[in-house]
Design goal:
The protein is an alpha/beta fold. The protein contains eight helices and seven strands; from the N terminus they run βαβαβαβαβαβαααβ. The chain has helices at about 20-30, 40-50, 70-80, 105-135, 155-175, 195-200, 205-210, 220-230, and strands at about 10-15, 35-40, 60, 85-90, 135-140, 180-185, 245. α1 packs across α8 and α3 runs parallel beside α4. It is globular. GO terms for molecular function: oxidoreductase activity.
Length: about 250
C-alpha cells in the first residue's frame, strides 16, 4: 500500500447522512479525495457541496446499491472522474419494518436484504475487481452489532448484517495475497436518523437504548468514522477478515 498520507481516494456509499457523511468528512480532513454515493440525491449533493466549499477533491454519485447496473456504472464513473479508488466503505443500509420473525413480511425481508446484503455484495464485487487490477486496496463493510448477536423484532435486518460479515470474511481470504484487505465495522447504537426513527417508534425508546449500552450513552457517527479510517490506514496493515465492534461494550456481555 501507499503511504497513508499520500493523496488517495475513497468511495463511500450512504454518504448523504449519518455514519457515511461523518466518514466522508473524516477522510476529507485527512486529505483524501472522496466519492460520496447515495440514492438520495438531495442529501448526497448537499454533503458533497459542503466538503467542496472546504477545497476538497470530492464528487457526488447517485446510485441504488441494490441495482446491478447502477453499481457497475458507479465504478466506471468514479474511475473516470477521480481516477480510481484506493479504499471503499460500503455503508448504505436501511432498517425496514419492525416485527417478530412470524410477522415479518416477504416484501420487508426482500427489501432489506436487497439493500443491506445484495447491495454490499454488488459493491464489494465491483470494488474487488477494480482493486485486483490496480494491485492494492482496502474495503470496509458496515455490519452492526446485529451482525454479531440476535435481536428480537428485526429478523431481516439481523440476517442481512450477519450476511455482511460472512461476505467480508470470505472476500478477505480470497484476496489476502493480492494486497487487498477486507474488514467490517459493527456499530452499536449510534446517533443517526435511522436510530432516531427506531427509538421514536416506542415510548421511552431512547432511554431503553441508552440503558443497553454499558458505557451509558449512545455513540456518535464520528466514532465509527474514526474506526473506518484506522481500518483503511496502513496502521491496520495486518488486519483483514475482521469484524470490529464499535459498540460501547454492547457485545462484550
Amino acid at each position: 500500500m501507499t503511504n497513508p498520507h499520500d493523496a488517495r481516494t475513497i468511495l463511500i456509499t450512504g454518504a448523504g447522512s449519518g455514519i457515511g457523511k461523518a466518514t466522508a468528512e473524516r477522510f476529507h480532513n485527512e486529505g483524501w479525495s472522496v466519492a460520496l454515493v447515495d440514492r438520495d440525491e438531495e442529501h448526497g449533493r448537499r454533503a458533497a457541496e459542503a466538503l467542496s466549499r472546504d477545497g476538497a477533491t470530492c464528487a457526488f454519485f447517485r446510485c441504488d446499491v441494490s441495482d446491478e447496473a447502477d453499481v457497475a456504472a458507479l465504478l466506471e464513473d468514479v474511475t473516470a472522474e477521480l481516477g480510481g479508488i484506493d479504499a471503499a466503505f460500503n455503508n448504505a443500509g436501511i432498517e425496514g419494518e419492525q416485527g417478530a420473525t412470524t410477522e415479518c413480511t416477504a416484501d420487508n425481508f426482500d427489501r432489506i436484504i436487497a439493500v443491506n446484503l445484495r447491495g454490499v455484495w454488488l459493491c464489494l464485487r465491483a470494488e474487488l475487481k477494480h482493486m485486483a487490477q490496480q494491485g492494492h486496496g482496502v474495503i470496509v463493510n458496515c455490519s452492526s452489532v446485529a451482525g454479531l448477536i440476535g435481536m428480537p423484532g428485526i429478523p431481516a435486518y439481523v440476517a442481512s448484517k450477519h450476511g455482511v460479515i460472512g461476505l467480508t470474511r470470505t472476500a478477505a481470504l480470497e484476496h489476502a495475497r493480492q494486497n487487498i484487505r477486507v474488514n467490517a465495522v459493527c456499530p452499536g447504537a449510534i446517533e443517526t436518523p435511522m436510530l432516531e426513527r427506531y427509538m421514536s417508534s416506542t415510548e421511552g425508546g431512547r432511554e431503553a437504548m441508552e440503558a443497553t449500552e454499558p458505557v451509558g450513552r449512545i455513540g456518535h457517527p464520528e466514532e465509527i468514522a474514526d474506526a473506518v479510517f484506522w481500518l483503511c490506514s496502513d496502521r491496520a496493515s495486518f488486519v483483514t477478515g475482521h469484524a470490529l465492534p464499535v459498540d460501547g461494550g454492547w457485545t462484550a456481555g
